[in-house]
Amino acid sequence: MASSLLRIYSFFSSFRLQLLLFFALILLSRPISAAENQFKLDGKVLELDDSNFDAAISNFDYILVDFYAPWCGHCKRLAPELDKAAPILAGLKQPIVVAKVDADKYRKLGSKHDIDGYPTLKIFMHGVATEYYGPRKADLLVRFLTKFVAPDVSILNSDSAIRDFIEAAGTNFPIFIGFGLNESVISDLAVKYKKKAWFSVAKDFSDDIMSLYDFDKVPALVAIHPAYNEQSIFYGPYEEKFLEDYIKQSLLPLVLPINQESLKLLKDDKRKVVLTILEDEADEQSNELVKVLKAAASANRDLVFGYVGFKQWEDFVESFEVYKKTPLPRMVVWHGDEEYYVVIGSESMNETDIGTQVSRFLEGYREGNVVKKSVAGPTLMGFLNSQIGVKIVLIFIFVALVMLMIFSMTKEEPLTVGTREQVDERSSTSQPESAELLRSALKED
């Protein structure tokens, strides 16, 4: 009897085990649902809603979500930029997925994530959301997010790792490499300036690397500007104040070409700008002058050196009372706001002995031999000599002639339009406000 019961028990135990294995195989071989299938890392922008949002957030380490509304004009302009950025971000060593949510339709989901305007971009890093305030053009967005997900300080353990790091970093940001430096020395500053530069420490490297980056002892912190083919070396002291001063000064190249994009780099830099205004920054004479400015910048790191061509950015240059007939090149010291200084005796420069003239300019500025001026719109003559001024004057002449014709045809009636006050008001609002354009350019993000 006992043996019979034992055989029955063994049978059911074996059957139960086979049954469990059968169901396990079914679960493992079940077809992938549509929701799971759309989470493939294929470089496309994911369309999320109430049913799959949380699953998507938990499925990826980094996911950029665009909370949009179909009727929003800004959203419509942003969408193609995200479409272009998505495959590039998906192909990074640390992939970033791009997704979007119709927050106007799925308002409960939008409310859960504090969406009160469109479009709102949020990046979810391991499920934790941070609002994205960076650029929204595809190429700039890729640059920004690549830095966002990178380690604060990369650890490099060989020559090949150093080369790979430099290549992966690209040319859009300056690169700092601490040779023989402990990462703890720069970790806090790496976090503080993460959006503006790459930071790394090299633990092991050869003499060839020391020769390549031109340092002869360790520890050494090397700053590299790939876009400008520049580098500098800092041997200490490594106290935070001195180290931060070096990092801040090295965020910019020795001589910065001034344009709409580079002006943004000056926003957080408190140094005065030694601005050289050229006729055409692309000609050979200008290239030679820039070489002289680099030498001066290297010896005067408490100042920022920049240059701009009249041909390249006429409106900006006119803010410093420089017009078509002004002798160039010319140097001023700009405070980055509404004030600038002209050094007495150095109002313009000639082509001979340019190095001496730059030295005299800097000496005169430091001695206070200057005239303080305000950034403003062109003078009347400058305005009249500019192309836009000529066009507006011609328009006013045409308008005046039309007014005279109307007056002569209807002289029995009082004139109700085209009074002197109205013409003056129209004239003042038509002139280009170069100072305001300059200030708004600095405030752009």
Report on this structure.
With 445 residues, the chain is of the alpha/beta class. The chain has four domains: 1-27; 36-146, Glutaredoxin (3-Layer(aba) Sandwich); 150-250, Glutaredoxin (3-Layer(aba) Sandwich); 255-445, Glutaredoxin (3-Layer(aba) Sandwich). It is 45% helix and 18% strand. The protein is built from 18 helices and 16 strands. The protein has helices at residues 2-28, 34-37, 53-59, 73-90, 107-112, 138-149, 159-169, 183-192, 207-212, 240-250, 260-265, 284-299, 314-318, 354-366, 380-385, 387-409, 420-430, 434-443; strands at 46-48, 62-68, 97-102, 120-125, 128-131, 154-156, 175-179, 198-202, 220-225, 230-234, 255-257, 273-278, 304-309, 330-334, 339-343, 370-374. The strands form three sheets. Strands 11-13-12-14-15-16 form a six-stranded mixed β-sheet. A hairpin with a 4-residue loop joins β14 and β15 (339-343). It is flat, with a radius of gyration of 32 Å. The termini are far apart. Mean pLDDT is 80; it is low at 1-6, 19-37, 378-390, 410-435 and 441-445. Pfam families: Thioredoxin, Thioredoxin_6. Residues 1-34 form the signal peptide. One of its GO terms (biological process) is response to endoplasmic reticulum stress.
Question: Which features would summarize this protein structure in a list?
Answer:
single chain; 445 residues; alpha/beta; Glutaredoxin; six-stranded mixed β-sheet; five-stranded mixed β-sheet; 18 helices; flat; disordered N terminus; disordered C terminus
Summarize the structure.
The protein has 445 residues and is of the alpha/beta class.
